[in-house]
Amino acid sequence: MAETLNTHTSPGGFKPIPTYLRWVAFAVAVVMFALAVGIYLGLTNIVISENEPAVKWLPSTAKDVSYYRSYDYTAFEFTIPEADFLAWVKSNQWDKETKPIEAPFKIGRYTAGPTFQRKPDDPLDHTAAKGYFMARFFKGREGNDEGMRAAYDAENGRAYYTWKPSQGK
Q: What is the mean pLDDT of residues 106-118?
């Protein structure tokens, strides 16, 4: 009996993938690659600046702004009148957590950013003895540095802010 060649299967007995499915798979792969690149760039984008006269994302009275902004760590500090700091705190709905400083309060500085090129005399944190502070931590993670802090040092007229997302450990 003569064997007939089945044109719809490959020698291994599997049907070849239709052309339109190959194009769909290619399109999905391109979209996934573009998404991965976008996520990578979003997570590794780091912006550092020192002594900016002003920035548009802080109150107009904020001067001499220095910052480190990334996905993993954000910190900035700036000179601002005390009343304007308190108004900024209220505008961000942090006023209920903001308290007068009764004991020295330590807060990270922008110089503590993981990739910041520090000079030997750059302190990683600042301690305020007089002014205001606010701290908001992730539930159950109060004992570590993950969360948000803001402080106003009344002695030097500067505000400090840090944000570190939860690492989930």
A: 78
pLDDT the model gives residue 101? 95
Q: How many domains are contained in the chain? A: 1
Q: If you average pLDDT over residues 36-55, what whole number do you get?
A: 79
The pLDDT of 17-26, averaged and rounded, is 86
Is residue 52 assigned to a domain? yes
pTM confidence score:
0.70
Q: Are 125 and 105 in contact (CB under 8 A)?
A: no
Residue 33 lies in a domain: no
Q: Are 101 and 150 in contact (CB under 8 A)?
A: no
Q: List, as one string, the DSSP characters of the chain.
A: -PPPPPTTS-TTSPPPPPHHHHHHHHHHHHHHHHHHHHHHHHHH--EEEEEES--TTS-TT-EEEEEEE-SS-EEEEEE--HHHHHHHHHHTT-TTT-EE-SS-EEEE-GGGSTT----TT--SEEEESSEEEEEEE-TT-TTSS-EEEEEEETTTTEEEEEEE-----
